[in-house]
Structure formats: C-alpha cells, structure tokens
Write a structure and sequence with these properties.
- The protein is mostly beta strands and 117 residues long.
- The chain has one domain.
- It contains 1 helix and 15 strands, in the order βββββββββββββββα.
- Strands 2, 4, 6, 8, 9, 11, 12, 14 and 15 form a 9-stranded parallel beta sheet that branches. Strands 1-3-5-7-10-13 form a 6-stranded parallel beta sheet, with no helix packed on it.
- The protein is globular, with a radius of gyration of 13 Å.
C-alpha cells in the first residue's frame, strides 16, 4: 500500500521522452529527455539518473547527471558527484564539494516571478 505523502518515483529502468508535469514531489532515478515541470513541488534527481531536460520546480536536489537549464522558485542543491551542464536560475543555490557544474547562475528574486508568468 502506498504511503499518502511519499513522493512519486521514476525508476532506474524507466526512459521518458517528452514532457513530465505534476503537482507533487517527484524522484527521478531513470532517464528523461524533454521537460520536467513541477509547480510548487520538490524535484529530486537521483544518483543513477541521466536527464537531457529543462527542469522547473520549487526546490530541486541533484545527485545525478543533468544537461539542461534549471529554474527553481526556491532552492537548488548540487550534491557531491553530480554533473550539471546548463544555466541555473533560483533564489538560493547550494553546491557541495566534488559537484561538477558548467553554466551560468542567476540568483535573483526575479526567478520566482518569471516562473509564474
């Protein structure tokens, strides 16, 4: 039986080509090519995940590989061992040692306003 407040999960063997949208927390461990949009939710990119996607969510935690732009109305966390190639626009950014990032960063209040409009 599923736990009521547990985040949704995309498993390691799942490959999605297209658009992922939702209003609940999501953990991605598989491969996604396209866009991922979660309104007012938390997105977690697992250590085994490989995304060629633009990401948009309230908070984004990255442990795996992401190639694409990232827009967060809250916080983006780049954990040790992750690889990110693309631009980040968020209110807050946390980067651990041994995280690999190539791109531009925009940490302004306008990140949340532009994601709404």
């Amino acid at each position: 039986m599923a736990v009521e407040n547990a985040p949704a999960r995309i498993g390691k063997s799942v490959v999605i080509c297209g658009e992922v949208r939702g209003n609940e927390d999501l953990i991605i461990d598989g491969r996604v090519e396209g866009t991922v949009t979660l309104t007012d939710s938390r997105l977690t990119i697992g250590a085994s995940a490989n995304l060629a996607s633009d990401l948009s969510a309230k908070d984004i935690l990255i442990l795996g590989h992401v190639q694409g732009n990232i827009l967060a109305s809250g916080r983006v966390e780049l954990r040790a061992g992750c690889q990110v190639e693309g631009d980040i626009r968020a209110l807050r950014l946390a980067v651990e040692d041994n995280a690999v990032f190539r791109g531009k960063v925009d940490l302004t209040q306008s990140a949340s306003k532009q994601s709404e409009g």
